[in-house]
Amino acid sequence: MKEYAITNIVLVDEDLEECRNFRKAVEEIDRNLKLLCFHSCEDVMEHLNDTDIQLPSIIFLEIHFPTMSGIDCLKEIRSHNTLKDLTIAIYSNSTTESNQELAFNNRANIFVKKPKDFDGLKKIIKSIVDISFQFDSADFNKDTFLFSV
Question: Per the database record, which ranges form the Response regulatory domain (predicted)?
Answer without folding.
Answer: 8-129
